[in-house]
Design brief:
The protein is α+β, with helices and mostly antiparallel strands. The chain has 8 helices and 14 strands. The protein has a 5-stranded antiparallel beta sheet, covered by helices on one side. Strands 10-12-11-13-14 form a 5-stranded mixed beta sheet, with helices on both faces. Zinc ion binds next to loops.
Length: about 260
């Protein structure tokens, strides 16, 4: 069944208003495998049956309140263009910075031009530049010794993720170094934690066909939460890791994701 046929059938299955339900799937006849959700004006559906392709999302009309929120948020973001501080200098200014990048498998992505990385003299951090195409949106800095607090610092807006790579499969990881390391195989996207900020969802929808959520064993539940948020829009997969991807070299990353 194509998208619009699925949509018209789904609409007949649920009442109007907020819905979050699970039922037998009319597409594959699976028992209790179909989830349907209506949030705000969006209608989302997904079937868990392995051989069923029922999945979709339909954006309904926004209420005035939602329109206002969207416009106001966009305007606010426009206001603050990120200006790179003068304290951001070349990573080769100190061995501390290049040592960190080598040890955490970031150097390859820097050399290949996939990631722009600087050294912040003022805060003593390795700084990963967040870009949307060529536009700089902000930066994320990792302290280079234990006295630098907090360990990770966000410069500028937090609404756009650090992305390293150009492939149409994304691997969601906990931090920028892991995003660089995994970019040897797929595109790395740094969550800067273990949950998915709402503002990242449209970015992921636009850029990727598939998302692999790759988190630490401790964050298994979080990985499933993230996959639940994204599976209506694209293929999702979960990979539970024994260790951070930044500690893995290229062959190890390749064998993990093949
Ligand atoms: Zn189904």
């Amino acid at each position: 069944m194509n998208f619009s046929q699925q949509l018209s059938l789904i609409k007949t299955l649920v009442p109007s208003g907020e819905v979050d339900t699970r039922m037998d799937c009319p597409f594959c006849s699976g028992t209790n495998t179909l989830t349907i959700k209506r949030e705000n004006a969006d209608l989302l559906w997904y079937c868990f049956h392995a051989s069923c392709s029922a999945k979709g999302n339909h954006e309904g009309e926004m209420t005035m309140e939602q329109v206002y929120e969207t416009v106001v948020t966009k305007e606010k973001e426009k206001e603050k263009d990120f200006v790179m501080p003068k304290s951001f200098v070349s990573i080769f200014s100190t061995d501390k910075c290049t040592d960190y990048l080598k040890k955490n498998h970031c150097m390859e992505s820097y050399i290949k031009g996939k990631a722009e990385i600087k050294y912040d003299v003022k805060q003593h951090r390795a700084v990963f530049i967040i870009k949307e195409k060529e536009k700089v949106k902000g930066a994320i800095g990792r302290g280079l010794n234990s006295e630098v607090y907090p360990k990770w610092f966000m410069y500028g807006s937090k609404s756009y993720p650090f992305i390293c790579g150009n492939t149409d499969t994304a691997v969601l990881v906990e931090d920028c170094a892991s995003a660089c390391a995994v970019s040897e195989v797929h595109t790395g996207v740094a969550l800067m934690g273990t949950s998915l900020p709402d503002s990242y969802i449209p970015v992921l929808k636009k850029k990727f066909k598939k998302v692999i959520v790759a988190l630490d064993r401790d964050a298994t539940t979080k990985a499933f939460d993230i996959s639940n948020q994204l599976r209506y829009y694209m293929d999702t997969e979960i990979k539970i890791l024994q260790d951070d991807l930044k500690y893995f070299d290229k062959p190890q990353i390749e064998s993990l994701f093949q």
